[in-house]
Amino acid sequence: MQSYVLTTLDGGGRVITEPLPSVRSAALGLWIGAGSRDEDDAHAGLSHFLEHLLFKGTRSYSALEIAEVFDTFGGELNASTARDYTVVYARVLDEHIDTALDVMTDMVFAPTLAELDSEREVVLEEIAMIDDTPQELVHDLLTETVFGDHPLGRPVLGSAEVISTVSRRGVAAYHRSRYRADNIVLAAAGSVDHDRLVHLVEEMSAKRAEAPLRKPPARSLLVAPPPPALRFERKDTEQYHVCVGAPGIARSDPRRFTASILDGVLGGSASSRLFQEIREKRGLAYAVYTFASQYADTGQIGVYVGTREENLAACMEIVAAELAALAEDGPRDEEVARAKENLKGRVMLSMELTSNRMSRLGKSLVTDSELLSLDEILAEIDAVDAAAVGQLAGLLLAPEKLSVAAIGPREERFTDAVERLTPGLVERAAA
d(Cα 245, Cα 232) in Å, to the nearest integer? Predict the structure, then answer.
């Protein structure tokens, strides 16, 4: 049985908690509605850069003191940036909640933005690391290919050119415009007292060193995706790293549970079709899997394969055949049943961790998503049928809707393989 308590503060901030009397720890997360989709080209990467700078000191705590506080607790403190939010999160024993939250709210509301130049170099190294990791970089290439010039197509890390030149004043202005009380959610799960947390958070906005700027412009929604496209980056790699994808399901779309079952049947597990056909039966690849992302207005669905040149065409043929078979015949009943049990098991196991419970609450609120109970989620999964999975596969992953991105040594071998998957894309992309 799950129960949570939600309070909206006078300034617009929200506090949501899920008390769990059986544990002694608490997971805390400050969720900010600011991500890479909120940037323009001139500020690409500021959300992520700012996340780094939050750890470099506040008005009350130096960078070293922030680290020492959580090390002394035996706790955890971290942060991450996504396309539609930033989160600073921690896990501590319940006796340390007040201090942990004091440090975290200082980081979010009163960062000094110190050590900007040295942290700039750290982020540039992170960007360079991704550039040198083709199996990760190819996902950014596909996202750019699927969403085109829309902000969703921009890499979360941004561009090296922007990070190299952005000033402290520019970062501070972005912080004032986005890190507003009405754009922040505190989520907590574990041994927590909701009223106590509300009292502590009510004092957060007083920590701001400067008044917030006027309300930032609304996010640019994806009204219509661009046509499918092709992207190839030549690198002297041993393998071709290929991502095939298309726009997917929005976070509020009732078909999102069907999309999760489609992911499980197609390539989301060791028993999935692509894993079995490409890796287990034929040994054509070590890594092959499907992936999906969901946003407020759209989503992304895709397939990754990493394989040697002599296996590339065969892999693309198998992907094409399995997509066509799913769309035409739908999955087998036993595949759907297995995917459902897999998904339900992962959901229920994740709920054993306070950090996952906190993340579910915070992410739902900061992205304005429906917050379902565990029983409701399990019921939605059970309600998915094979016909709906096949229909969704045909709708989202029809050959004419697919974009393809790849990294490898020879573009002509890649384009030849693409023709076996989505005929005509190479010609349309060259036009």
Answer: 14
Give me the residues paired with residue 304 across strands.
Answer: 243, 289
Query: pLDDT at residue 209 above 60?
Result: no
In the set 18, 51, 119, 335, the catalytic residue is 51
Residues 160 and 18 in one domain: yes
Q: Looking at the predicted structure, is the pLDDT value of residue 211 above 70?
A: no
Angle at 49 between CA 45 and CA 50, to 5 degrees: 115
**Smallest Cα–Cα separation from 330: which of 402, 399, 265?**
265
In the residue annotation, 51 being an active-site residue is answered as yes
Does this model's pTM top 0.90? My answer is: yes
The answer to whether residue 219 sits within a structural domain is no
Q: How many domains does the chain have?
A: 2
Residues 364-389 have a mean pLDDT of 95
Q: Which of 175, 207, 239 is the last residue of a domain?
A: 207
Both structure tokens of 374: 């565990």
Residue 363 belongs to domain spanning: 230-430
Of residues 292, 291, 288, the one with CA closest to residue 312: 288
**Among the listed residues 240, 258, 238, 239, the one whose alpha carbon sits nearest the alpha carbon of residue 249:** 258
CA distance 112 to 55: 10
Task: Please answer whether residues 176 and 169 qualify as being in contact, where contact means their C-beta atoms are separated by less than 8 angstroms.
Answer: no
